[in-house]
Write a structure and sequence with these properties.
Methylamine Dehydrogenase, Chain H; 2 domains
């Protein structure tokens, strides 16, 4: 049966269906083979309609890669040429560029946006109010460990009172209209709390009065809250901030939380080789999904076309080979992710995606997760979801 005939038959069936409830379908997992990424993935960012990954890998699917690769919806390919060694920790889309640790690819070279910073000193980047920020190890020439890109130069924006802002910022995150920095640094203003601060474009200020056991390492935003993680010896902690007050969420044994995402109406936190998931205010722990010869680590999450991408340092997923990357997808009839299940908008979005025009929140054309994109099997899976079944 042709795709057009399947569509017509499916639409006629849909018209006869009652109001649809959300199907409780098991998640679909997809893992890359052992040849995919030969080193850890540290960060993701949305770029140019696709998803970019950066880390410590030197090969992607057997091709040389400078620790940078791009997913186009079907395959991962290296981005840029050689000459950019090391483990890359941060990537961001800015002015149509893919910026990696303060470097951009201008063929045939990776070049710094400005010469005041070494890419090895940068821990995190963010775009705030249309401007590019970077943070990392204290730079004495710029008198700060947070910098803004202005007129092809970096300028320090971290001057505190009474001392300089430093010695290190570990992460940046935009939350509630402010740029938040966390790390190991003095209070940004007299009497405020050290190790976390927010920037409004002009001045730094504190975020309430949190008490962190040790310096915070990672920031994330989900369900309108700011999440912060760090470690205490071999154990980790997670706290949240709702814009007014701080709350202790959970602690973890022998692992630190290093990734946050909002997905499937829940908060997902990557802790070693498993997830902590908060749904309706209740935290649950997943099975041990990932393993490796050492301690498996989930470094970052990204939600792209309805799928949760997991990047880190692991070599198996549920006992099968998985080279530092996995995909986790909850399939429902809410194809476009707007909260309405099996609506006309979902049907329109699905067929638009088959034609190559996927919306950012759409589940993508490989609906059944078999690795073949936009096939008749995907159409059949879509109709099963609309009928209340599973893909």
């Amino acid at each position: 049966m042709s795709r057009l005939m399947q569509a017509l038959v499916g639409i006629s069936v849909i018209a006869a269906l009652p109001a649809l409830a959300r199907a409780q379908c098991p998640p679909l997992w997809a893992q890359e083979t052992a040849a995919a990424f030969n080193g850890a993935i540290r960060d993701f960012t949305q770029w140019n309609g696709g998803l970019a990954a950066v880390g410590g890998f030197t090969q992607v699917n057997g091709q040389p890669a400078p620790g940078v690769a791009v997913w186009n919806g079907e395959t991962w390919t290296p981005h840029g040429g050689a000459g950019f060694p090391g483990t890359h920790r941060s990537a961001v889309a800015f002015n149509n560029w893919l910026v990696v640790d303060g470097m951009v690819w201008i063929a045939p070279f990776w070049v710094p946006l400005a010469n005041q910073l070494s890419f090895t000193t940068i821990n995190a980047m963010a775009v705030y109010n249309g401007e590019l920020y970077a943070a990392g190890t204290y730079n004495s020439n710029l008198n700060s460990c947070v910098w803004k890109f202005v007129n092809w130069s970096w300028v320090g924006v971290g001057l505190g009172n009474p001392v300089e802002f430093g010695p290190v910022v570990n992460d940046l995150q935009v939350y509630n209209g402010k740029l938040v920095a966390c790390g190991n640094f003095w209070a940004p203003t007299q009497g405020s709390t050290p190790n976390i601060a927010q920037w409004n474009g002009t001045t730094w200020s504190s975020l309430g009065t949190p008490t962190f056991p040790t310096q915070p390492r990672t920031l994330g935003v989900a369900q309108g809250e700011l999440f912060v993680s760090g470690y205490i010896g071999l154990n980790g902690y997670v706290m949240s901030y709702n814009g007014t007050a701080w709350r202790n969420e959970f602690t973890t044994a022998n692992n630190e939380a290093t990734a946050f995402a909002e997905y499937d109406d829940a908060v997902f936190v990557g802790v070693g080789g498993r997830f902590m998931v908060r749904r309706n205010g209740v935290w649950t722990s997943s099975p041990q999904y990932f393993t490796s010869p050492g301690i498996p680590t989930t470094y970052d999450f990204a939600v792209h076309h309805g799928t949760l991408f997991i990047g880190g340092s692991f070599n198996t997923l549920l006992g099968q080979p998985a080279a530092n990357l996995a995909r986790y997808t909850i399939r429902t009839s809410d194809y476009d992710g707007d909260g309405d299940f099996g609506a006309d908008a979902d049907i329109e979005a699905f067929f638009a995606c088959l034609g190559g025009a996927c919306c950012p929140t759409c589940a993508g054309p490989d609906l059944n997760g078999d690795g073949d994109v936009g096939t008749d099997a995907d159409i059949e899976s879509f109709f099963r979801l609309l009928g209340g079944g599973c893909a």
